Every structure is written in structure tokens, then in C-alpha cells.
């Protein structure tokens, strides 16, 4: 060291060289993307995530600040293959660089999203999403097919919700994988099975619980979409993701965000129906009572109206007149019969006094003829009187002042007098308009 020649120029310090490196990296590596596998995930007490993203030949330290993690709502765990976005930063105290992460996506999601958009555009152009092909959901289904995993939570949610809302329904579960390579063929097979039954179900629910885009991908397969479109049974897509849509959601006749919501769409709440029926029954009872009361008051007003009382008096007068005529007719008939009998008795006395058999027989025949004629005349007179009475009753019905009102006409009265002609109408007098169901007074201006 004694013989070492000192440098003839300034040597930078560690801080200075680190600052140059920091400036160089942070200026040139902003908003970068990197793909790799997450390892050594550690969440601090402050909520920050520290981890490493690596591949076979290198690794990169990363950090996600707590505020960023809360905003993204992502779960970071070892072994995930991800695409990270952010900035490179040099941490001078440790002499190391790290990536400040602001974006986390599942690796491959871009390719799947592109494939999703291409298939969506293709099927939409073919008209598979058109509302004109949508079938109506039956309002009260009793047989409901369910296509999902027999071991998943989705069918349990559907079954328990039906038991609460619509216990009259019978569920028919057809197991199908809802994730993995075999999922799409099994879903197509289940849909076609339900569609080929001689006694098909009323409604079909197809779906699963939530998951990543890769997990839900079988419901974005073209074969599944076309099977749903060709299914003759109304279908509800119940893939458990509330924000994003699957191809099955667009093709199905109805879309539910979750399996539980599919039940809400598929069937009414039986308790709400019970309340509705009770309300309708109560409303009908109230309306009927109001109608009965209204007609009762109408009949009472009609029975006590002046016009009806006048008609009743006229009918009573005519009835008394008819009774008097009948009494007079009966009296005349009795007198005529009595006179005829007296005459017959006189004839009998004459016959008996002369006692000729021929004369007696002749007078007997004459008496029979006269009796028959008398009875015929009596019946004819009685029939004529009854006809006259019915005619009088018909005339009374025709002059009933209430009859035009019952046919929808009105009647104008001034000072209690029926105005039958325009020349009798007084413009300055108070006018009353009478209908069949009431009247109104109009004061002159």
C-alpha cells in the first residue's frame, strides 16, 4: 500500500454511484411489464406485500404497497404465473433494485380475452345473441333441470334456495364438470340430454360458482354456446361472476350473476304469492261490498222517487178500475144467467103443463144451445177484458218517465217541471238535469 500511487481524479462515493444507477434505471424502466412465477410472498404488519417474481434463469424483487393491494383486490400467493406492471426503483440503503407493482394479471389472460372477443363477435354476427330468439321464462315452473358439478357448492345453493322460495318444484341434476378439459364436452352432453327427453323439464339452469377466467372458460366455448342456443328448453345461465359476462350468458334466454340469483329469476317466492292472493281476496271483498252498498242505495232512491210513486198510484188506480169492471161484469153475468134460468124454468113449466114430448125435446135442445152460447160469450167477454187490462198495463209501462233514463237519456227540469220543448226553457231559471243514477242542479249565470 505504501508504494500505491494515488488517483489523480475524484472517485465517487457509494451514494453517488448508487444515485447514478438509480437515476439511470428509474428513468428508463417506467411502466414496464414482466411475466413470471411468484415466490416468497410475505405480507408485513403494515399490509404491504413483498415477494419475488422469477423464471428459470433470474429473479426480480417486488413490492405492492398496501393502498395498491386494497385497490386491486388481488390475492397474492406462491406459485402463481402472473404478468406484473409497474416501475423499477433502486433502494439505496440496501443497494438493491426492486419493482413497485401497480398491476397484477393472471398470465395468459390477454390471449383468453382476445379469444373471447373474437368468438363473441362471430356469434353476435350470426344472431345467436338476438332477443328475437330468446324464449320466455315460464312463470310457475314445476320441473327444473340443473347442469353443474354434483360435488360443487352451486347445486347446494340452488337446491336450498328453491326449498325456501318455491318448494313445489322438482329438481333434476345432471352432473357435468365445470372446469378443465372435459368440462365443455360434458356440458354439451348434458344440455342435449335434457333437450331430447320426451317429457322435458320446464326450465334449465346451467352454471357454477365463481372463479378465474381460466376456471370459467368452458362457458366461453363455442360448442357450449351453440348447444345452449339450440336447446328447446328456456335456459338460465348462472355462472358465478357478477361483473364479467361469459358467452353462455349472451346466448342463454336469461342471465343470473350467481346460482342463487338464478333461482330468483326462475321461480316466484311462494310466500309473496300467498300474500298477493290474500290481498286480492281482500280487495275483491271490499269492492263487492261497495258495489252492493251502491246498488242498495240506488234501489232505495228508485223505490222512493216521485216518478215511481206517481206510476204506482196510476197502476193502483187502473187496478181498482179493472177490479170494478170485473165486478160489474160478474154481476151482469150472474143476472143474465139468473134471467136465463128463470126463462128456462118458465119454459119447463110450460112444457110440463102441455106435456108434449116433441116440444119438450125441442126446448131441451134449445136450452143446451143457449147454455153453450152463454158460456162461450162469458169466456169471450172475460178474455176481452183481460186483453184490455194487459194493454192498459203496457201503456202504463210505455209512459213510465224513468224508462228513457234507464236507456241513457237525461231529463231537464225547471221549478220541478219537465221541460219537453225548447220554447219552454228559461235561460235565467235554475236547471236540474236528471240521469238514471242521480241528478245535478245548474245555476244560471
TrEMBL record:
Keywords: Cytoplasm, Exonuclease, Hydrolase, Nuclease
GO biological process, one term: DNA catabolic process
Annotated OB-fold nucleic acid binding domain residues: 13-103
Location of this chain's protein in the cell: Cytoplasm
Keyword Cytoplasm in record: yes
Top-rank lineage group of the source organism: Bacteria
CDD domains documented for this protein: ExoVII_LU_OBF
Entry GO MF terms: exodeoxyribonuclease VII activity; nucleic acid binding
InterPro entries registered for this protein in UniProt: Exonuc_VII_L, Exonuc_VII_lsu_C, OB-fold_nuc-bd_dom
EC number, UniProt record: 3.1.11.6
Domain Exonuclease VII large subunit C-terminal: from-to ranges: 128-442
First-level EC class: hydrolase
GO CC terms: cytoplasm; exodeoxyribonuclease VII complex
Reaction equation(s) it catalyzes: Exonucleolytic cleavage in either 5'- to 3'- or 3'- to 5'-direction to yield nucleoside 5'-phosphates
Function: Bidirectionally degrades single-stranded DNA into large acid-insoluble oligonucleotides, which are then degraded further into small acid-soluble oligonucleotides.
Record-stated family: Belongs to the XseA family.
Subunit record text: Heterooligomer composed of large and small subunits.
Protein's name in the database: Exodeoxyribonuclease 7 large subunit
Gene source species: Rhodohalobacter barkolensis
Native organism taxonomy: Bacteria, Pseudomonadati, Balneolota, Balneolia, Balneolales
Encoding gene (name): xseA
Amino acid at each position: 500500500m505504501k508504494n500505491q500511487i494515488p488517483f489523480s481524479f475524484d472517485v465517487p462515493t457509494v451514494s453517488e454511484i448508487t444515485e447514478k444507477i438509480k437515476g439511470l434505471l428509474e428513468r428508463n424502466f417506467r411502466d414496464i411489464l414482466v411475466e413470471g412465477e411468484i415466490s416468497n410472498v410475505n405480507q408485513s404488519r403494515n399490509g404491504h406485500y413483498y415477494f419475488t417474481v422469477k423464471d428459470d434463469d433470474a429473479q426480480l424483487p417486488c413490492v405492492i404497497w398496501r393502498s395498491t393491494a386494497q385497490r386491486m383486490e388481488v390475492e397474492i400467493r406462491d406459485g402463481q404465473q402472473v404478468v406484473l406492471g409497474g416501475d423499477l426503483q433502486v433502494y439505496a440503503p440496501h443497494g438493491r433494485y426492486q419493482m413497485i407493482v401497480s398491476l397484477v394479471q393472471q398470465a395468459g389472460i390477454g390471449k383468453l380475452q382476445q379469444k373471447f372477443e373474437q368468438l363473441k363477435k362471430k356469434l353476435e354476427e350470426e344472431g345467436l345473441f338476438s332477443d328475437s330468439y330468446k324464449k320466455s321464462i315460464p312463470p310457475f315452473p314445476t320441473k327444473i333441470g340443473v347442469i353443474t358439478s354434483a360435488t360443487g357448492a352451486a347445486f347446494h345453493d340452488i337446491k336450498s334456495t328453491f326449498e325456501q322460495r318455491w318448494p313445489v318444484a322438482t329438481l333434476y341434476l345432471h352432473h357435468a364438470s365445470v372446469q378443465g378439459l372435459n368440462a365443455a364436452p360434458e356440458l354439451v352432453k348434458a344440455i342435449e340430454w335434457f333437450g331430447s327427453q320426451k317429457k322435458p323439464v320446464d326450465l334449465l339452469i346451467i352454471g357454477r360458482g365463481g372463479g378465474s377466467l381460466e376456471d370459467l372458460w368452458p362457458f366461453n366455448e363455442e360448442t357450449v354456446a351453440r348447444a345452449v342456443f339450440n336447446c328447446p328448453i328456456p335456459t338460465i345461465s348462472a355462472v358465478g361472476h357478477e361483473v364479467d359476462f361469459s358467452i353462455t350468458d349472451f346466448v342463454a334466454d336469461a342471465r343470473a350473476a350467481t346460482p342463487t340469483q338464478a333461482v330468483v329469476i326462475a321461480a316466484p317466492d311462494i310466500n309473496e304469492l300467498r300474500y298477493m292472493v290474500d290481498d286480492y281476496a281482500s280487495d275483491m271483498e271490499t269492492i263487492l261490498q261497495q258495489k252492493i252498498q251502491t246498488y242498495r242505495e240506488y234501489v232505495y232512491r228508485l223505490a222512493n222517487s216521485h216518478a215511481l210513486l206517481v206510476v204506482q198510484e196510476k197502476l193502483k188506480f187502473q187496478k181498482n178500475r179493472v177490479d170494478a169492471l170485473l165486478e160489474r161484469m160478474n154481476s151482469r153475468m150472474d143476472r143474465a144467467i139468473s134471467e136465463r134460468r128463470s126463462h128456462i124454468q118458465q119454459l119447463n113449466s110450460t112444457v110440463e103443463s102441455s106435456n108434449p114430448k116433441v116440444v119438450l125435446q125441442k126446448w131441451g135442445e134449445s136450452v143446451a144451445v143457449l147454455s153453450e152460447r152463454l158460456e162461450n160469450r162469458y169466456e169471450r167477454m172475460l178474455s176481452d177484458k183481460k186483453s184490455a187490462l194487459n194493454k192498459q198495463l203496457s201503456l202504463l209501462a210505455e209512459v213510465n218517465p224513468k224508462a228513457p233514463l234507464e236507456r241513457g237519456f237525461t231529463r231537464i227540469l225547471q221549478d220541478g217541471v219537465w221541460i219537453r220543448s225548447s220554447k219552454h226553457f228559461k235561460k235565467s231559471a235554475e236547471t236540474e238535469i236528471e240521469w238514471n243514477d242521480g241528478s245535478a242542479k245548474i245555476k244560471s249565470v
